[in-house]
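Reproducibility note. Readers wishing to regenerate the assembly model reported in the main text can use the exact inputs given here. Chain order matters: entities are listed in the order in which they were concatenated for prediction.
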Amino acid sequence: AQTVTQSQPEMSVQEAETVTLSCTYDTSESDYYLFWYKQPPSRQMILVIRQEAYKQQNATENRFSVNFQKAAKSFSLKISDSQLGDAAMYFCAYRGFSNFGNEKLTFGTGTRLTIIP
Amino acid sequence: EPEVTQTPSHQVTQMGQEVILRCVPISNHLYFYWYRQILGQKVEFLVSFYNNEISEKSEIFDDQFSVERPDGSNFTLKIRSTKLEDSAMYFCATQGGVETQYFGPGTRLLVL
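Running the prediction on these inputs yields the following structure tokens for the assembly.
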């Protein structure tokens, strides 16, 4: 079974600075997807970024980027120019690849990010 | 931008009562999921649903749980006889292609 590990229960960063959240995963599959979801106090789950394992290029979405190291099974999220609205719980998630498309997400335990004004 | 919607946003029920949680998927999405999150814990998979049948279910999804898509639009999760430990946030997620699942805002269920 796949597992996802987030070893940092809490992180904090000064506003406008950069922070990196860590995630490692375990799988025997070669094709899969990795995601970062953000959960603000409202508890809504918001997609931040997605990475396909077959792509060597790291995904980027505005101030959010990932460092995907397939061999090391590592998938960290970098947030640049941190803003107060980035304060949230961040979950790393793994999803296997299926021709049928209906693979579940496996989540890590989350990292609570605090932004210091 | 299309969104997944869920009703109710909050539900308080007595132990042993039946509850039905509703989800309206994004139009044209074909894959549907229910997840739950007990307060302070990680999000856990319950069940996936495709082509009007369950694709996969977790150990949590026992005989007290059922899902259906009664009218081709809503996707429901029924808990037949609620227990205290069913108190959690329940998320519906839907997926169009083979990649990304989009989550609804959740239903906060409290069992007393």
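We highlight two features of this model. Chain B has no helices and eleven strands. Residues 16 and 81 of chain B are 4 Å apart (CA to CA).
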